[in-house]
Amino acid sequence: MAENKEYGFEETMVTLTDEDGHDRDFYVDEIYEAAGRSYAALIPGDEENITEYYVFRVKDLGNDDFELEDIEDEEEYDIAADAYEECLDARAWTMMNAEEE
To answer: Where are the alpha helices (DSSP H) in 32-73?
Structure first.
């Protein structure tokens, strides 16, 4: 794992295969809970200016292993995406306050 100097945390890279069979690398930006479930927000690993993210449900397989599951329900996806936006806001607030000190 590489350490992200901007955020100061270790990055985990995962490779996902789309419905067309193409592999694409993503960084796991955040693993968090919302409405009693665990979710992961992924950002593309091949872009410098990140403008999009993807949210998946996390299934814990034990021994620090996990599986990412698609979220089919629109309401559940909205809850998970809103919670990730709150994580981003909290991160920005923390970084802003750290710069002021």
So the answer is: none
